Backbone:
């Protein structure tokens, strides 16, 4: 039995919202808490991915710090996990270049995320479009190769991701298998990782519940941050969009707003219900206003310890946060350099 290595990354987008938390970060903490002692866990703040779009240097530094404090506040333990910033481990860029020499342009062009960046329908042919080719950046096109490097550097066996990243994981596997085929003599050089699909459903925007909750939504009220105060949580839920049907019922298609609220409640406190449907049946007599208050309460109770720890970390000595990240980077680099030595050696560079 091979030892498990779990790797995942998140961009330095500042304080996470409930979508990031329920869709990804909560799973990381759970994996940490349930991992056997010989499992290695690595969690990276992937700032090299963030620069595929234009960034302000000060805002980037601030968001990186906020994300680090958030990860720690949520319960990731730097003694148990390797938590680090991607750009401080240079091997990511080096392996990316090597992998990109074996990466297919056609395959990259078929990535759903790339197509959505081009605003192409997902069934469009990959290489035709774009009369705006000069504005399209190579880094945005090739960032799945960097993602593959992130994963493959650490001999990762399992990658927890959301549905939207499953295609990139498949691409990572293809790169690893291709590399091993070309360059491994006896045992495979690169470990081919498995996808651990996050079980959570998409958390929807509070103001427009047919869209997912997202940091890029201009409406601040569309999302709850994991550090929002009790008052902010109540205010945002109060203005959440529901509908004029009387009472509570669960139907993601026809009642997206109400169902999203029930899902939120279910995630934080299912109250013994086995499913959101069952939870909704128990709440059917509630008015919208009463439902929103109940949801606000369970969300507040669910995140208030995190909020407290976050405030402590951000208000405390800055040096402590920097040291967590530097220590993580040192530990990550040892593993990454081990992989790179074997890769360089096998390639004759
Ligand atoms: P955003 O959509 O706010 O830009 P990211 O794309 O940075 O968020 O996503 C970071 C992680 O959070 C990913 O694993 C993604 O799948 C997850 N995630 C983001 N938004 C949601 C959401 N609304 N529901 C569930 N998971 C989400
Ligand atoms: Na996004």
Residues:
């Amino acid at each position: 039995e091979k030892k498990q290595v779990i790797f995942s990354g998140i961009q330095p987008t500042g304080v996470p919202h409930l979508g990031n938390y329920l869709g990804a970060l909560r799973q990381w903490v759970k994996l940490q808490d349930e991992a056997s002692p010989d499992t290695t866990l690595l969690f990276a703040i992937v700032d090299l991915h963030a620069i595929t779009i234009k960034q302000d240097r000060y805002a980037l530094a601030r968001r990186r710090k906020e994300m680090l404090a958030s990860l720690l506040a949520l319960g990731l333990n730097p003694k148990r996990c390797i938590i680090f910033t991607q750009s401080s481990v240079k091997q990511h860029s080096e392996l990316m270049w090597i992998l990109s020499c074996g990466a297919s342009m056609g395959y990259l062009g078929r990535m759903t995320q790339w197509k959505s960046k081009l605003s192409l329908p997902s069934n469009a042919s990959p290489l035709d479009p774009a009369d705006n080719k000069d504005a399209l950046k190579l880094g945005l096109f090739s960032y799945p190769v960097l993602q593959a490097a992130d994963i493959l550097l650490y001999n990762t066996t399992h990658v927890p991701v959301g549905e939207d990243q499953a295609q990139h994981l498949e691409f990572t596997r293809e790169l690893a298998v291709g590399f091993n085929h070309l360059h491994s003599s006896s045992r495979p050089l690169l470990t081919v990782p498995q996808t651990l699909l996050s079980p959570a459903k998409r958390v929807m925007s509070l103001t427009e519940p047919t869209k997912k909750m997202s940091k890029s939504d201009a409406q601040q009220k569309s999302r709850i941050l994991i550090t929002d105060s009790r008052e902010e949580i109540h205010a945002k839920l109060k203005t959440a969009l529901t509908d004029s049907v009387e009472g509570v019922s669960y139907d993601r298609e026809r009642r997206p707003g109400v169902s999203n609220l029930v899902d939120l409640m279910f995630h934080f406190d299912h109250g013994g219900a086995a499913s959101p449907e069952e939870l909704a049946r128990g709440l059917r007599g509630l008015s919208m206003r009463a439902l929103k208050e109940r949801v606000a309460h369970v969300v507040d109770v669910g995140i208030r310890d995190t909020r407290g720890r976050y405030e402590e970390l951000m208000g405390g000595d800055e040096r402590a946060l920097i040291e967590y990240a530097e220590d993580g980077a040192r530990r990550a680099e040892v593993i990454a350099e081990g992989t790179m030595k074997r890769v360089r050696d096998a390639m004759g560079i």
